[in-house]
Write a sequence for this structure.
């Protein structure tokens, strides 16, 4: 089993220390937090938080390995693994104190990427650090087929309105830790409600490649020509990018609804979220966090700007309907689609030809499985207890440290089938 990651800070207070404590002023990586000691007790399976209710209670799969543990409140979402096995994560600024929104897990330490200075941002004083030149709240991290790390920053604090100039997609050369591409978005692409969620890359399409981004705020798919930086929207208003009307969702056996401390209950409105690209890059799979359907669309239709929306919509098909909503999606090299099903603490596998859905793994310790990565025969997944946040429990914070980075062996399915 891989080393556990536990922050050696007083009372295990936070997985990330304050920028003022850890950052240097030279633009190089700050010293990481030594996070390897004193972890044996929490590593034991019976010490991890488990589901309080629902179909996963009492179920544990021995294949599920702990890679890293994250105490504190900052929640890991994005996850990716480089060609050489370097692990990168993102901690979006959703309300809990976050010093570094993009990090590398390196030799038992969390290190800001590309450096602490770029990660410096104060949500209480956005003018202190220019949101156009600093990382505001990285939602997704993805290593592409050329081993470059891309950081997708919706430019939003606490899931609020985007800050001017803040939404961005940056690429880094991993060997040099230098930014090699910076993409911004016009106002007719990043809309008032837009939240840039996740991204996939087809580097064979166009001069330098094409990116596809889910918008979980306004709903839709954003297409980006990486050579020119031009971007455009697809499937705005289509049923496949919107919540399923009237769907009654559950998490840990309880209704999953927004419960403000003072106010009426309401259904979460989180739109197109999960995204995966087929190995031949001809099909984009996507899903809405508040739906149990997974959809497929031809990438040729998304990328062809001469097609109108009605013509693009004709290329959309439902791949499968599952027993649970999901957050993340990923494809393996054989084209199978995996979904992180948060309603029942499950990972499901979908056959792209038949649409058949099967359970890959279910485990009561996997509380809100979020983002996937595949490397070296293992499927990695972050687990961040998203549904235990105060907004869903009348102001009561039900999250219990630690959050977890898990992995499970996939046997012969050794390579990621997408970028």
């Amino acid at each position: 089993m891989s080393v556990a990651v536990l922050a050696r800070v007083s009372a295990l207070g936070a997985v990330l220390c304050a920028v003022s404590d850890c950052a240097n002023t030279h633009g190089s990586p700050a010293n990481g937090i030594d996070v390897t000691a004193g972890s044996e007790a929490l590593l034991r399976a019976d010490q991890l938080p488990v589901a309080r209710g629902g179909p996963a209670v009492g179920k544990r799969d021995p294949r599920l390995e702990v890679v890293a543990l994250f105490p504190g409140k900052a929640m890991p979402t994005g996850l990716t693994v480089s060609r050489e096995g370097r692990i990168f994560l993102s901690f979006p600024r959703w309300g809990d104190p976050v010093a570094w929104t993009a990090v590398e897990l390196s030799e038992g330490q969390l290190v800001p990427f590309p450096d602490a200075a770029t990660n410096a941002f104060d949500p209480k004083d956005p003018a202190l650090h220019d949101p156009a030149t600093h990382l505001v709240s990285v939602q997704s991290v993805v290593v592409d087929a050329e081993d470059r790390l891309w950081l997708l920053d919706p430019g939003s604090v606490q899931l609020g309105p985007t800050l001017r100039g803040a939404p961005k997609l940056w690429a880094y050369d991993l060997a040099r830790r230098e930014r090699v591409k910076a993409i911004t978005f016009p106002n007719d692409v990043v809309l008032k409600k837009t939240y840039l969620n996740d991204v996939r890359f087809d580097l064979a399409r166009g001069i330098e490649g094409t990116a596809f981004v889910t918008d979980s705020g306004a709903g839709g798919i954003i297409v980006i020509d990486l050579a020119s930086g031009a971007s455009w929207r697809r499937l705005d208003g289509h049923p496949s990018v919107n919540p399923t009307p009237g769907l009654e969702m559950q998490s840990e056996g309880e209704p999953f609804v927004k419960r403000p401390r003072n106010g009426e209950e309401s259904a979460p409105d989180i739109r197109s979220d999960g995204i995966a690209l087929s190995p031949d890059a001809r099909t984009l799979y996507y899903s809405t966090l508040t739906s149990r359907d997974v959809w497929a669309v031809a990438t040729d239709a998304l990328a062809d700007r001469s097609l109108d929306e009605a013509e693009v919509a004709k290329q959309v098909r439902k791949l499968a309907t599952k027993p649970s909503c999901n957050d993340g999606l990923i494809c393996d090299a054989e084209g199978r689609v995996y979904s992180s099903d948060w309603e029942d603490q499950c990972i499901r596998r979908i056959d792209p030809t038949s649409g058949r859905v099967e359970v890959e793994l279910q485990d009561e310790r996997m509380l809100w499985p979020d983002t996937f990565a595949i490397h070296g025969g293992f499927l990695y997944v972050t687990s961040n207890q998203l549904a235990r946040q105060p907004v869903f429990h009348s102001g009561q914070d039900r999250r219990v440290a630690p959050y977890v980075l898990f992995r499970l062996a996939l046997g012969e399915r050794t390579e990621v089938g997408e970028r």
Summary: The longest strand covers residues 178-184. The chain has one domain: 10-409.
